[in-house]
Design goal:
It is built from eleven helices and 13 strands. By secondary structure, the protein is an alpha/beta fold. The chain is elongated and about 85 Å long.
Length: 389
């Protein structure tokens, strides 16, 4: 792969990594020293709907950085390291282009080894799949050369919007920020009266904090049980989140006919409703045609959901009645598990439905069981529009 930084990239590099203007000449000198020795390449293999990828920039960065460390020149060693990170970010763009050229698919958000859903212990299996000899690893699963990465890239039929690099930079108050920081929490200032109204937020009076969305670490909710209220609770949380400025994706499974909440949910700017317009009727588990139709429909919904989630366009995802397609085997359970494991750290996830599978119980941070003690259906009172549906 050809990867390089032009003058504009280097100027932006100095700003993005918070170097001083006086460092620029030295950074350019280091880059010119490194550039002819950079040998960027990647190898990939398809596994299911994903690409397993290993990418490396070669040994140049390791050798130059180690030489400065041995001399005690930490500043230049750090510059070399940052240049490597910047060139790797360029390489990701080239990898995306090549994957599309070779597979006809678009790469979504990467899942790197070392995160919970892809532990380092998976490295030997993935490297064996790749079968290449350029990048190796030691007993601690550290890749060699060090400017190498091993990851899984989910592939999609449609192009997935990725986050700006600024979104991950931990200098959350940087004046050069180009995208909202998603690596931690920002503040959300409610309208208050009384003694607290004039309290100092530490950000100055000129900043309108009501436009800043609060981003806590996202947790997983499970609303289950035989009683009424699971979808109702999910709707209430969706409205609350939208009121706080969060982007909500409200996805419904197993529901063909329109229900009364849809009209109001669709009218709220921050809520996007994902469901099928097809009414397949009742699911018949012993009918192959019914199983095939529901499976195709639900995996199609999952495609749309993944686009919003991995594209960074979802702060709260509701998967209403999702327990049923998982229990009936009419949705790709591996993709559901990956979604639970690899969702963005800030994204809140709500799962609803009876008979929750063990996977949901294991992953949930909240489990609320709706227990039926009395229900008008037992007296022959049918479901009422605006109440039950």
């Amino acid at each position: 792969m050809k990867v390089s930084l032009d003058e504009a990239c280097l100027r932006e590099f100095v700003r993005r990594y918070h170097f001083n203007d006086t460092d620029k000449n030295e950074i350019i000198r280091l880059y010119r020293q490194l550039s002819p020795r950079v040998h960027a390449e990647f190898h990939y293999v398809l596994e299911g709907g994903n690409a397993v990828v290993v990418m490396t920039l070669g040994n140049a960065f390791d050798e130059l950085q180690d030489s400065y460390i041995q001399k005690g020149d930490i500043n230049r060693a750090y510059m070399v390291d940052c240049l490597g990170l910047e060139i790797m970010s360029q390489a990701y763009d080239r990898i995306d282009e090549k994957l599309h050229e070779l597979t006809g698919k678009y790469a979504g958000g990467y899942i790197f080894t070392g995160v919970e859903e892809l532990p380092l212990s998976e490295a030997p299996r993935l490297m064996a799949l790749l079968g290449q000899k350029v990048v190796t690893y030691n007993e601690a699963f550290v890749l060699m050369p060090k400017k190498s990465v091993l990851f899984i890239a989910p592939l999609f039929d449609e192009k997935i919007e990725k986050h700006d690099k600024c979104a991950y930079c931990s200098a959350a108050n940087c004046q050069l920020r180009k995208a909202e920081y998603i690596g931690g929490s920002s503040s959300y200032k409610e309208d208050k009266s009384g003694d607290d109204a004039g309290s100092d937020s530490g950000l100055g009076d000129s900043q309108d904090m009501t436009s800043v969305v609060e981003r806590h670490p996202g947790l997983i909710h499970l609303y289950t049980g035989e009683g009424k209220g699971k979808t109702t609770a999910a709707i209430g949380l969706s409205v609350r989140a939208a009121g706080a400025g969060k982007k909500v994706v409200f996805a419904q499974f197993m529901k063909g006919r329109d229900t009364s909440e849809l009209g109001i949910l669709k009218s709220i700017p921050n809520i996007r409703v994902v469901r099928s317009s097809k009414n397949l009727g009742w699911f018949k588990k012993d009918d192959p045609d019914s199983v095939a139709a529901f499976t195709e429909l639900h995996n199609g919904l999952l495609d749309e959901i993944e686009g919003y989630v991995y594209g960074g366009d979802c702060d709260l995802l509701v998967m209403d009645e999702v327990t049923y397609p998982v229990s009936y085997g009419i949705i790709d359970e591996d993709r559901i598990e990956r979604l639970l494991n690899s969702k963005p750290a800030y994204m809140e996830l709500v799962l609803t439905g009876r008979n929750a599978p063990e996977l949901f119980n294991d992953k949930a941070d909240y489990i609320t069981e709706m227990r039926k003690e009395k229900h008008p259906y037992d007296k022959g009172i049918q479901a009422r529009r605006g109440i039950e549906y």
